[in-house]
Amino acid sequence: MKAATRSYHQGARAESAEATGRRIIEAFLARLMDQWFDEITLDRVAEDAGVTVQTVVRRFGGKEGLLASAVTIFAERVRAQRAAPPGDIDRLVENLLADYENTGDAVMRLLALEQRHPTLEPVLELGRGEHRQWVSSGFAALLRGLEPPVRQRALDALVIVTDVYTWKLLRRDLGRSVRETSATLKNLIQAIIAQTSTTQ
Fold first, then answer.
1. Which one, of 168, 37, 41, lies nearest residue 115 by Cα?
2. Looking at the domain that runs over 1-73, which CATH code has it been given?
3. Lowest CB count within 10 Å: 72, 81, 127, 157, which one?
4. Which residues contact 185 (CB under 8 A, 6 or more apart)?
5. pLDDT 10s digits, 15-44
6. How far is the C-alpha of 189 from the C-alpha of 29, rounded, in Å?
7. Is residue 144 very low, low, confident or very high in pLDDT (cuts 50, 70, 90)?
8. Residues of the chain with CATH 1.10.357.10
9. Residue of 26, 9, 24 whose CA lies nearest to 74
10. What pLDDT is attached to residue 2?
11. 82 near 65, Cβ under 8 Å?
């Protein structure tokens, strides 16, 4: 009986600790969506999560450790948001833009700080790899059968067209609407595919 009780309490403590960790990460991610990384403080994150700074430090070791843990959850959300049937250009672009409308400004802030904060480099490299993989999977049917050099050039072009910098140029710098941005991306994607098919 004592062993069962002890096991129950240990399980409850583990669940509580997991819930606390998740709450801290959510608080950090919420700050990251609105603030520059170097302006986020552990004090604010702890306050938002309803814990002490010591709890944050004990669990994550500091802001860098918190970022490393948060990026996993962030990446899962991006994948879920972008998920679309391979080859369905309309859905691929719509889901991509929905992701960028939610996370694009935060990602641009992180990119702007990359050279000043080496701790951001692996996080952003992960993002670049995830984006290329998304393009490769989403447009696989459209690139199937191409010679390797041709496929690589087409993939590079699609990565550029769907990159967050392209979104930022259209939405923030040029002030285009989501609908206009969507139309532009689809036109560019179709042009790349058409050009690739004629040069194969």
1. 37
2. 1.10.357.10
3. 72
4. 93, 96, 97, 161, 162, 166, 170
5. 677 899 999 999 999 999 999 999 999 999
6. 32
7. confident
8. 1-73
9. 26
10. 57
11. no
Secondary structure string (H, E, C) spanning the chain: CHHHHHHHHHHHHHHHHHHHHHHHHHHHHHHHHHCCHHHCCHHHHHHHHCCCHHHHHHHHCCHHHHHHHHHHHHHHHHHHHHCCCCCCHHHHHHHHHHHHHHHHHHHHHHHHHCCCCHHHHHHHHHHHHHHHHHHHHHCHHHHCCCCHHHHHHHHHHHHHHCCHHHHHHHHHHCCCCHHHHHHHHHHHHHHHHHHHHHHC
Q: How far is CA 31 from CA 38, 51, 53, 89, in A?
A: 11, 16, 15, 32
User: What is the distance between the alpha carbons of residues 89 and 114, in angstroms, rounded to a whole number?
Assistant: 31
Whether 93 and 87 have beta carbons less than 8 Å apart is answered as: no
Q: What is the mean pLDDT of residues 146-168?
A: 95
What is the Rg, in whole angstroms, of the alpha carbon atoms belonging to the chain? 21
Quick one: 8 exposed, middle or buried, by C-beta within 10 A (0-12, 13-18, 19+)?
exposed
Nearest CA to 189 out of 88, 46, 59 is that of 88
